[in-house]
Design a protein that fits this description.
nine-stranded mixed β-sheet, about 40% helix, alpha/beta, 17 strands
Length: about 400
């Protein structure tokens, strides 16, 4: 069954989704029925939507229709699925409109700007009898699934005991992905700790299981940011967060996400276990008293050719299987909501100065940090919130 697909939002991430549509089409062979036809794009920015339409024509062999207003697209096009590729604060509103139009959803991470709105999306999807996945490349794709399988069966490091996950990026005082909105709490929810961190949190849940408790410190080192394209903005999100995690299964984690780096980037991901350590950044494994081994060689027996290599292709394949066969997705709305709760538990702890249970963030019992998001959302009504004239 070929589903008619539309993209709402045509920014930088849309090209990755386009490649995913192309791979899931090609993986099934030339004679197989296509899973999706990309028939329409919507974005208020003419240059962005026309550029992606041209790219789609080259990549997929057909040019989708383009719209400046997604609501007009919903009225005019016969669609089955919408991929939401828009700022975080718009997810609930656009998801609701798409569900009212009878569409299934692929939602870009994070699922929403707040836990409450993420839950609304999940519940409204269920109420409307539609299917939804959250596009989370950190846990999808053939190689990633093989690595996770090797962690689960103990063949890499035994039983995991410690997680070290560090990411420091350099923005030269500018904006992540050239987008000021990602540094404004009322549109993004938090800084890079959400934009990058929710990927990592979702991976933590897949690799080590649920996070019970978090403690963190967060700080904004560069409250004023600028670049030549956008000018100067006063931002209200953190640009450095350092967290400690306690996993329900007993492992401990140390986690750093910072977008205030200078001089040199830094990144490292290590999982220590009862029998060794795996380094995800260097792609190596060293077991007790053993030689360094290549991770890629160790996971070869676990690679499943039925899983698309590209994570975005895997996401589209998951959604198709959910719609047509009811197959439970890896990247479900519930799992995405829990990943967001891990990030917000850290920021809750940084706000209150106390360790925070992830379950309390999920239930709404702990909400001091999310209260600051709601307060910031009032500023989004301004034409250019945060701009310094």
């Amino acid at each position: 069954m070929t589903l008619k697909l539309a993209f709402i939002g045509t920014g930088g991430i849309a090209s990755s989704h386009l490649r995913g549509v192309a791979e899931v089409k090609g993986q099934r062979g030339a004679s197989a029925e296509r899973l999706y036809d990309l028939v329409a794009l919507a974005d208020p920015r003419a240059e962005a939507r026309e550029a992606l339409a041209a790219e789609a024509e080259t990549t997929l062999g057909q040019r989708p229709s383009v719209y400046s207003d997604y609501r007009q697209m919903l009225e005019r096009e016969a669609l089955d699925v919408a991929a939401l590729l828009v700022p975080h604060n718009l997810h609930w509103q656009i998801a609701r409109d798409c569900l009212d139009a009878g569409l299934h959803l692929q939602v870009q991470k994070p699922i929403a700007i707040t836990i409450a709105e993420g839950r609304r999306i999940i519940e409204y999807t269920q109420e409307k009898g539609r299917a939804m996945v959250v596009s989370e490349p950190a846990v999808l794709g053939r190689k990633t699934r093989a690595v996770l399988a090797a962690l689960h069966d103990g063949s890499l490091v035994g039983t995991p005991t410690m997680l070290l996950d560090y990411a420091v990026t350099i923005l030269y005082g500018g904006f992540f992905a050239g987008t000021p909105w990602r540094h404004l709490k009322g549109m993004a929810g938090a800084g890079w700790f959400v934009d990058h961190g929710v990927h990592r949190a979702h991976w933590f849940l897949e690799a080590l299981g649920p996070v019970a408790e978090a403690y963190a410190l967060a700080k904004t080192f560069e409250p004023v940011r600028r670049d030549e394209s956008h000018g100067t903005f006063r931002v209200d999100t953190e640009d450095c967060a350092m967290a400690t995690l306690r996993f329900e299964a007993g492992a401990l984690g140390h986690w750093l996400v910072a977008s205030a780096g200078h001089g040199a980037r830094f990144g490292a991901v290590r999982v220590y276990g009862t029998q060794g350590v795996v380094s995800l950044d260097s792609g190596t494994v060293q077991q007790d008293r053993g030689e360094v081994q290549q991770l890629e060689a160790m996971i070869q027996p676990l690679l499943d050719e039925r899983i698309p290599a590209d994570p975005m292709a895997h996401s589209f394949a998951e959604l198709h299987a959910l719609i047509n066969a009811g197959s439970a997705p890896i990247s479900s709305g519930e799992q995405a909501l829990e990943a967001l709760a891990v990030v917000y538990a850290c920021l809750e702890a940084a706000t209150t100065g106390r360790p925070t249970m992830v379950a309390d963030v999920l239930s709404g019992a702990a909400h001091a940090y999310e209260d600051t998001i709601e307060a910031a959302r009032a500023l989004v009504a301004e034409a250019e919130p945060g701009r310094v004239s």
